[in-house]
């Protein structure tokens, strides 16, 4: 069998770099929902050839951040209000599992930092913030991924979290997850962390994501 060349691995690295750059631009709003993505413009921006760019876009389409229709368009995905509840439930179930295995191994420093973050998020809610303000990748979700001791679980969730969190970026999310709901449950979650109670913490994060509520469609 011929010895594999290094080019595929190099191309994979380029594809991953391109995907990371485009993903970050989508999540921070540089690339807006529905914006068309043209190969020539991406090539000039990213300094990469067409092949790894198309591979990266296909990967982001699998994550739910990009929509592709052959010979028609490639664009940043448009969050669908009808998918918000399912995405919210999925995030709650996934992070319920992460929290269940993470709480027992948290250090005192981890607990202190988590409580400070939760108190800060609770204050933002009391000052008029919404679910879109506190349920963010950079805040609530990535913080738990960094603490989780189960790398397989972290890798699995990391592959889908961007697309799921992106689906929450609709105006109606504030109607689905009222700030009062979060203000009521954040202290419950916070206390479970302080008490090192993984089951209570898991149930609290699932309740925050309305896993225990009857499913309904947003009008």
From TrEMBL:
Residue span(s) of domain HTH gntR-type: 12-79
UniProt key word Transcription regulation: yes
Entry GO MF terms: DNA binding; DNA-binding transcription factor activity
SMART domains on file: HTH_GNTR (SM00345)
Keywords: DNA-binding, Transcription, Transcription regulation
Entry-linked InterPro entries: Tscrpt_reg_HTH_GntR (IPR000524), WH-like_DNA-bd_sf (IPR036388), WH_DNA-bd_sf (IPR036390)
Protein name: DNA-binding GntR family transcriptional regulator
Organism: Curtobacterium luteum
